Amino acid sequence: MIQFAGGPIGPAPSSHEIAAWVRERIRRGQFVPEQRLIEVDIIRATGGSRVRVREALQRLAAEGLVTIEPFRGASVRSASLEELRHIYRARAALEGITAGDFATSASDAQRTRLQEIQDELERCVTERSPERFGRLNAEWHELLVEGSGNTIIGELLQRLSVPIHRLLFESFYDADRLRTANEDHRRILAAILAHDAAGAEAAMRAHVHAGFQTLSAIEREYRV
């Protein structure tokens, strides 16, 4: 395993572990948009082999977090606000469908788990734990896809991942935005538990659109 806070430990890391190491640094703003990712530096920091590092970078490129160019190598991908707008529009439609399908197709165990995650999200708001909220939020959305039974949409959503940048935890999940996002989750969950597919879809679409509005507001704040 790779130790995020320090150097490499234990056996040579897998490409999955190296990708997680790079992803974490993008998330925390230690690797910023358009910054080159030097293979030898990653090898030295993680203890990974050149082959595994290249596999990790290819994995991150498929996720939309890294760009790989001939003769230049890998760099952290930058995305314009217009590109993000298109991504969010597509995600709103697709995630709306998954929420509606989950309302009618999910198992009792999946509904129970969704409620459990929501309870944990509530605690994150109270305790002001933005990073934990972000991880649980991802799990919450992934569970909706799983419970919808629509594997095609799941694959499409993976291709439409929103590029992570340094604002994600520092600004996107500040105290007010945590509360707002959580209120959206409550509305979606209430519709799901009522087996209201149309209501769940509408609430999810509104939630995703609100996420883009938040990103737009952050962009304006940082331009001032």
TrEMBL record:
<dbReference type="InterPro" id="IPR036388">
    <property type="entry name" value="WH-like_DNA-bd_sf"/>
</dbReference>
<feature type="domain" description="HTH gntR-type">
    <location>
        <begin position="12"/>
        <end position="79"/>
    </location>
</feature>
<dbReference type="Pfam" id="PF07729">
    <property type="entry name" value="FCD"/>
</dbReference>
<dbReference type="InterPro" id="IPR000524">
    <property type="entry name" value="Tscrpt_reg_HTH_GntR"/>
</dbReference>
<protein>
    <submittedName>
        <fullName>GntR family transcriptional regulator</fullName>
    </submittedName>
</protein>
<dbReference type="InterPro" id="IPR011711">
    <property type="entry name" value="GntR_C"/>
</dbReference>
<keyword id="KW-0805">Transcription regulation</keyword>
<dbReference type="Pfam" id="PF00392">
    <property type="entry name" value="GntR"/>
</dbReference>
<dbReference type="InterPro" id="IPR008920">
    <property type="entry name" value="TF_FadR/GntR_C"/>
</dbReference>
<keyword id="KW-0238">DNA-binding</keyword>
<dbReference type="InterPro" id="IPR036390">
    <property type="entry name" value="WH_DNA-bd_sf"/>
</dbReference>
<keyword id="KW-0804">Transcription</keyword>
